[in-house]
Design a protein that fits this description.
The protein is α/β, with parallel strands linked by helices and about 525 residues long. It is about 35% helix and about 20% strand. It folds into 3 domains: about 5-185, DHBP synthase (Alpha-Beta Complex), CATH 3.90.870.10; about 190-330, no CATH class; about 335-534, no CATH class. The strands form 3 sheets. An 11-stranded mixed β-sheet has the order 1-8-2-3-7-4-6-5-9-10-11, sandwiched between helices. A 6-stranded mixed β-sheet has the order 16-15-17-14-18-19, covered by helices on one side. The radius of gyration is 25 Å and the shape is globular.
Length: about 525
């Protein structure tokens, strides 16, 4: 039976700490809070513990799990198998975005259980911005692997009761810390390196923002860093020598010392003439960084949108001298900004004037492909993903769920789509989840109506409010649908047509919660709602 424990008890009660350590030592699982959603956690280094996570969630092993650490030195020590330039990249990103909702995928140590990486050779790591989560990791002294604490493809949990509802019959400890602050999962990025290309090609890329990064250099991505493999076994001893560490110093302490030198390189601090040893350390580490920087071209690819955006990442990289030539791209399966339903937003002055055709995503000018089909086709191959959260059906209620959009001219959808037809839907058997009052005047048409209203908030706070509360409201909608035997859950996307990154992040979750399925609504002269399939 699941047990809920007040999170603060973990900090002040030694008995609870011992209970946690013993629980994890036995490869049992925990539910714990983060700033994003609650996680279902276990020992990242134990194959048995990881298998328990997959089994309890009914999660396919092709879907990798993020490991949580309390310090980036822990990731260098226990998880990552990367050269010193990549360590510096991760250090810089973490110094700007962590603790926080940024998960970084990089090459994994060979000793890690393959199930952690979905057999991809890469692992995702982040530092949660929640003191209870970090305390758990410190007490256990191991990375904690944790997907969201819900059954696979179900709605993500944002409080401890959600976790209890999912796993009340399981032997898990659930640490309560209230409602999550952000409400959606972390941004996930991958550090990718390529063989050096001709300078002409690189120049052309940098001047063309529209270059398809999935095709550019795709055959040349470096999976095995042969140069690093030559020196990885002696890396710690070499660092101890450079950093003037005693032989009895732990690997973790060596990486802690390395962080200090990274900080000197980052800030460009001019050291006192008398501190010659520190200058030598800085120069030697910089030389090692430059060796790998000059060997490869680097790219950061966003695999899952979240709080931190492409622009946020580019700003940090551009302002860091050794990293300002690293490009940032978006994984093609999450390019929701290319959906026609969003691309046509410029023509939509208000919710009732939306004119969009099929939800197509443009690969190039002559090649349009439906996004949901694109994702589904990738899934059908059962190829392991390098990042979590990229499956089409994700965050989904158990009741059939559809996105709802408004059209201004029903003749257009009929003429533009051969398969579109007027649907006979009993709205008294539908639960409607509105966002921003788009269907407020029609609330009595539905069996139940919920509204994520943000009327009293500043514009820049509205999308944050929706993001924080969407999964909470979606669970309420699901419970209402189940208890009232509803046939459908509808989610309005009328007010989610902005192309800013934060809106695209929550749109990603909403799109997947409905598996990309869409109904379009025409409001006729009698104020009646006419539903069309897409």
């Amino acid at each position: 039976m699941a047990t809920i424990i007040e999170g603060e008890e973990l900090i002040k009660n030694d008995e609870v700490k011992e209970m946690l350590k013993e629980h994890i030592k036995k490869n049992n699982l925990i539910g714990f809070p983060t700033e994003t959603v609650y996680g279902l956690g276990g020992n990242s280094l134990s194959e048995i513990s990881l298998k328990n996570i997959f089994k309890m969630k009914n999660r396919p092993v092709s879907d990798p799990i993020i490991s949580h650490v309390y310090d980036i030195a822990q990731a260098f020590d226990q998880l990552y198998h990367i050269n010193i330039y990549e360590k510096y990249i991760i250090y810089i990103l973490n110094s700007n975005f962590s603790p926080g909702p940024l998960s970084i995928i990089a090459k994994a140590k060979e000793c890690l259980p393959l199930i952690l990486t979905a057999h991809t050779q890469f692992c995702a790591v982040r530092i949660p911005n929640n003191k209870i989560a970090r305390e758990i990791i410190k007490i256990c002294n191991i990375p904690i692997a944790a997907p969201s604490a819900n059954k696979f493809q179900h709605i993500s949990p944002t409080n401890s009761l959600h976790v209890y509802e999912e796993f009340k019959d399981e032997n898990i400890l659930i640490f309560d810390n209230g409602q999550c602050d952000i409400g959606i999962e972390s941004t996930v990025i991958k550090i990718i390196k390529y063989k050096k290309q001709k300078e002409k090609n690189i120049s052309n890329y940098n001047h063309n923002e529209n270059t398809n990064c999935d095709e550019y250099n795709s055959d040349n991505e470096i999976i095995i860093d042969e140069e690093y493999e030559k020196e990885c076994n002696t890396e710690i001893n070499n660092l101890k020598c450079i950093l003037n560490c005693n032989n009895d110093v732990s690997d973790f302490e060596v990486f802690e010392k390395l962080k200090e030198v990274f900080e000197m390189i980052k800030t460009g601090n001019i050291l006192k003439e008398s501190d010659e040893n520190m200058k030598i350390m800085k120069n030697k580490i910089t030389a090692n960084i430059l060796k790998y920087k000059n060997l490869y071209n680097y790219e950061i690819k966003i695999y899952r949108r979240g709080k931190y955006t492409k622009d946020d990442l580019k700003e940090v990289l551009n302002n860091t001298s050794l990293l300002n030539d690293i490009r940032v791209s978006i994984y093609k399966k999450i390019e929701f900004e290319k959906l026609n339903i969003l691309k046509n937003k410029a023509n939509n002055e208000c919710g009732h004037s939306i004119n969009s055709n099929r939800m197509d995503i443009a690969r190039n000018e002559n090649d349009n492909i439906d996004l949901s089909n694109n994702i589904a086709n990738n899934e059908s191959s059962m190829k392991s993903e390098v990042s979590p959260g990229t499956l089409l059906t994700h965050y989904s209620p158990v009741v059939s769920t559809y996105l709802i959009d408004i059209i201004k001219n029903k003749d257009e959808i009929i003429s533009n789509s051969y398969n579109s037809k007027l649907l006979n839907i009993d709205l008294n058997k539908c639960v409607f989840l509105d966002i921003g009052n788009s269907f407020f005047e029609y609330e009595k048409n539905f069996l139940k109506y919920l509204n994520i209203s943000y009327d009293n908030l500043e514009v820049n706070e509205q999308i944050k409010y929706v993001t924080k509360n969407f999964f909470l409201f979606l669970r309420k909608a699901e419970n209402l649908a189940i208890n009232n035997q509803a046939e459908y859950i509808f989610i309005s996307i009328v007010n989610l047509k902005s192309l800013d990154e934060l809106t695209l992040s929550i749109f990603d979750r909403i799109f997947r919660s409905a598996s990309g399925k869409l109904f379009k609504v025409f409001i006729n002269q009698y104020k009646q709602l006419e539903f069309f399939n897409n």
